[in-house]
Amino acid sequence: MEHQLVRKPRVLCLHAFRISGKIFEKQTEVWPEFVREKMDLVFIDAPFPAEGESGVQGEFDPPYYEWFQFNQGAFLSAALPGMQAEVCKQYFISSLLLLYGEKDFGLTNGIELLDSFVDPVVINHPGGHEVPKLDEKGSETMIKFIEKVQELL
């Protein structure tokens, strides 16, 4: 019998505002190991040192990073609609796994994303803008999503 290697989906993990890839990786350790081991998680740091306080100060040590400096954020806001249209011409992105807290300040933006995807998968939790612990249902939902992505590899 042949053994076929199953490729793990490689997931690019982009951290939130004024934290770091290392901090984000640490935050995902609340997920069960049997979920984490099914993915090749890649954590990177944003290119700019944070220019203000981090929401995780006191909980995690610096350094903290930001994706955009003020002037670049304004440019990106103006350029984003055109960039999005170009990406959609070249790639068909159909899968979305959205994890959100019911008290998340970005909840509205996350919900608006759902209309852009075919069969989006949602895991919600009672917290805010944070990496949630996955209960049994959340773990099962994430495993099913990972298996769906693996079928595309």
Automatic annotation (TrEMBL):
It comes from the Eukaryota. Residues 7-73 form the Serine hydrolase domain. It holds the Pfam family FSH1. InterPro entries: AB_hydrolase_fold (IPR029058), FSH-like_dom (IPR005645). Gene3D superfamilies: alpha/beta hydrolase (3.40.50.1820). PANTHER family: DIHYDROFOLATE REDUCTASE, OVARIAN CANCER GENE-2 PROTEIN-RELATED. This is Serine hydrolase domain-containing protein. It comes from Rhododendron williamsianum. The lineage of its organism: Eukaryota, Viridiplantae, Streptophyta, Embryophyta, Tracheophyta.
